[in-house]
Design brief:
The chain has about 120 residues and is α+β, with helices and mostly antiparallel strands. The chain is built from five helices and three strands, in the order H-E-E-E-H-H-H-H. The longest helix has 15 residues. The radius of gyration is 13 Å and the shape is globular.
Length: about 120
Protein backbone atom coordinates (compact mmCIF):
# COMPACT_ATOMS: atom_id res chain seq x y z
CA UNK A 1 0.00 0.00 0.00
CA UNK A 2 2.19 2.82 -1.29
CA UNK A 3 -0.47 5.39 -2.05
CA UNK A 4 -0.44 8.72 -0.20
CA UNK A 5 -4.22 8.78 -0.25
CA UNK A 6 -4.68 5.20 0.96
CA UNK A 7 -2.24 5.87 3.80
CA UNK A 8 -4.04 9.09 4.66
CA UNK A 9 -7.40 7.29 4.82
CA UNK A 10 -6.09 4.28 6.74
CA UNK A 11 -2.82 5.40 8.33
CA UNK A 12 -0.19 2.99 9.56
CA UNK A 13 0.62 3.47 13.26
CA UNK A 14 -0.96 6.86 13.72
CA UNK A 15 -0.89 7.00 17.49
CA UNK A 16 0.71 9.15 20.17
CA UNK A 17 3.42 7.11 21.94
CA UNK A 18 5.20 9.37 24.45
CA UNK A 19 7.28 6.52 25.98
CA UNK A 20 9.21 5.93 22.75
CA UNK A 21 12.98 5.60 22.78
CA UNK A 22 13.37 8.46 20.29
CA UNK A 23 10.96 11.27 19.50
CA UNK A 24 11.02 14.11 17.03
CA UNK A 25 8.71 16.95 16.10
CA UNK A 26 8.54 19.29 13.16
CA UNK A 27 6.14 22.09 12.33
CA UNK A 28 6.14 22.85 8.63
CA UNK A 29 5.81 26.31 7.18
CA UNK A 30 3.93 25.32 4.01
CA UNK A 31 0.56 24.53 5.65
CA UNK A 32 1.42 24.69 9.33
CA UNK A 33 1.60 20.88 9.43
CA UNK A 34 2.65 19.44 12.79
CA UNK A 35 4.08 15.93 12.99
CA UNK A 36 5.50 14.01 15.94
CA UNK A 37 7.45 10.80 15.26
CA UNK A 38 7.95 8.09 17.89
CA UNK A 39 10.59 5.39 17.43
CA UNK A 40 11.11 2.23 19.44
CA UNK A 41 14.68 1.04 19.01
CA UNK A 42 16.40 -2.21 19.91
CA UNK A 43 20.15 -2.72 19.34
CA UNK A 44 20.27 0.35 17.11
CA UNK A 45 17.44 -0.86 14.84
CA UNK A 46 13.91 0.58 14.62
CA UNK A 47 11.57 -2.16 15.80
CA UNK A 48 8.46 0.03 15.69
CA UNK A 49 7.51 3.53 14.53
CA UNK A 50 4.48 5.72 15.11
CA UNK A 51 3.42 9.22 14.22
CA UNK A 52 0.79 11.72 15.26
CA UNK A 53 -0.08 15.12 13.98
CA UNK A 54 -2.40 17.75 12.72
CA UNK A 55 -1.57 18.08 9.06
CA UNK A 56 -2.74 18.04 5.46
CA UNK A 57 -3.42 14.91 3.39
CA UNK A 58 0.02 14.86 1.77
CA UNK A 59 1.83 15.25 5.08
CA UNK A 60 -0.18 12.56 6.89
CA UNK A 61 -0.01 10.14 3.96
CA UNK A 62 3.76 10.51 3.73
CA UNK A 63 4.13 10.16 7.52
CA UNK A 64 2.29 6.85 7.32
CA UNK A 65 4.41 5.63 4.40
CA UNK A 66 7.63 6.74 6.10
CA UNK A 67 6.92 5.09 9.45
CA UNK A 68 6.09 1.85 7.64
CA UNK A 69 9.27 2.10 5.56
CA UNK A 70 11.74 2.63 8.41
CA UNK A 71 10.86 -0.39 10.55
CA UNK A 72 13.85 -2.71 10.47
CA UNK A 73 16.34 0.00 9.48
CA UNK A 74 19.28 1.06 11.62
CA UNK A 75 18.90 4.44 13.30
CA UNK A 76 22.24 5.43 11.77
CA UNK A 77 20.81 4.76 8.29
CA UNK A 78 17.76 6.93 9.00
CA UNK A 79 20.06 9.93 9.38
CA UNK A 80 20.94 9.59 5.70
CA UNK A 81 17.38 9.65 4.36
CA UNK A 82 16.73 12.41 1.83
CA UNK A 83 13.83 14.18 0.18
CA UNK A 84 14.30 11.93 -2.86
CA UNK A 85 13.86 8.86 -0.64
CA UNK A 86 10.57 10.29 0.64
CA UNK A 87 9.23 11.09 -2.83
CA UNK A 88 10.08 7.55 -3.99
CA UNK A 89 7.78 6.18 -1.27
CA UNK A 90 4.79 7.67 -3.07
CA UNK A 91 5.06 7.09 -6.82
CA UNK A 92 1.29 7.51 -7.26
CA UNK A 93 1.32 11.31 -6.97
CA UNK A 94 3.40 14.07 -8.48
CA UNK A 95 3.73 16.37 -5.49
CA UNK A 96 3.73 20.01 -6.63
CA UNK A 97 6.82 22.05 -5.74
CA UNK A 98 4.71 24.28 -3.50
CA UNK A 99 3.73 21.23 -1.41
CA UNK A 100 7.19 19.72 -1.00
CA UNK A 101 7.33 21.22 2.49
CA UNK A 102 4.20 19.27 3.39
CA UNK A 103 5.72 16.05 2.08
CA UNK A 104 8.96 16.56 4.00
CA UNK A 105 7.53 17.45 7.42
CA UNK A 106 7.59 13.83 8.63
CA UNK A 107 11.16 13.36 7.36
CA UNK A 108 12.29 16.45 9.27
CA UNK A 109 10.59 15.16 12.43
CA UNK A 110 12.30 11.80 11.91
CA UNK A 111 15.70 13.43 11.44
CA UNK A 112 15.14 15.47 14.58
CA UNK A 113 14.36 12.25 16.48
CA UNK A 114 17.55 10.57 15.29
CA UNK A 115 19.89 13.49 15.93
CA UNK A 116 22.69 12.36 18.26
CA UNK A 117 22.35 13.74 21.77
CA UNK A 118 24.89 13.85 24.60
CA UNK A 119 27.22 11.07 23.61
CA UNK A 120 24.71 9.01 21.64
Amino acid sequence: MNSIFANWQKPFHRERRPKADLQGRHVGTACGDEIDVYLFVENGVVRDAYFEGDACTICLGIASLLTRHIIGLAVEDLRGLTADDVFQLAPDVEIPMGRHGCALTALLALLQATRPRNGR
